[in-house]
Amino acid sequence: MRVELNAISKTYDGSTFAVRDVDLTIPSGSILGLIGPNGAGKSTALRMVATVMEPTGGTIAYDGQVATDAASHQALRSQIGFLGDGNPLYKDMTASEYLTFFGQCFGLRGPSLRAKVDEVLATFSLGSKANARCKALSKGMRQRLLVARCLLHDPSLLILDEPADGLDPRGRSDLRTIVGQIRDRGVTVIISSHILRELDDLCDQVAILQRGTIVVSGEVGSIIDRYEVSRLVYELRILGGLARAREILAQRRVLIESEAEADGLTALSLQVQGDDAAVADMLAELCGAGVRVVTCSRVRSRLEDVYNRLSEDQVN
Length: 316
Fold this sequence. Notes:
By secondary structure, the protein is an alpha/beta fold. It has 2 domains: 3-226, Rossmann fold (3-Layer(aba) Sandwich); 231-308, ACT domain (Alpha-Beta Plaits). Helices cover 34% and strands 29% of the residues. It is built from 10 helices and 13 strands. The strands form 3 sheets. It has a 6-stranded mixed sheet, sandwiched between helices. The protein is globular, with a radius of gyration of 23 Å.
């Protein structure tokens, strides 16, 4: 589903705008990352796209059509999966009962409903918790159940507002994999976060929202190129050969931001000019010179660098 926002605005009191004059096009079958600090207007924008909230001004077109009446809104909502901010669970229902209830709300019945409930439970590793009451689930499991609910009716548009909230590292990794698989099926995904590492290397498009307005939007690669974010930060951990490593890094104009010792290893925080090929060449030279490299990992996302260049606020 292709989504087009045309001069979308929202005010709650008639004078202060939570979202103002937002123009945005999300191609069908792509993932858009909506980035901004708390209070930037992300949740308001997503609620309007999800048809939960009416814009004060502007229009939203879905595959070129603007919903104008109750019937068209209802037909549109049957194609949208929406996880909003602060969605509650029915605590005394089991996980299976909760999904069955919402499956019925989406019009599923009988064997197809039971099969779909079993499918999403398995997808989110909740099969063993099917008969556990929602109030007995951990925070991470509750969050996974909320996301699973959004996929019961095979939506064409999936909208996720801070979906990784409460998930442990494994859960966040699984969520990224699932979102990528959903995109591969042709589903359009809009996902918001103020934790930029959650979106790095996941999104096709990105929009940065500040004080209710879009400050930059477009394909991730073109935005990174536009703002010349080419200095990547890595942590290099070595077992020996520090002096030689310093020489090679200096020759390659790699900036050592800091050095630290931990568990018998030297950890170097490096700013590397260039792309992944430059990092690979650097590592090859280090190893060839006898530097005992243990690990090398990127510790700051390129989206985060873009944001920091543009932002007046801080994000995690």
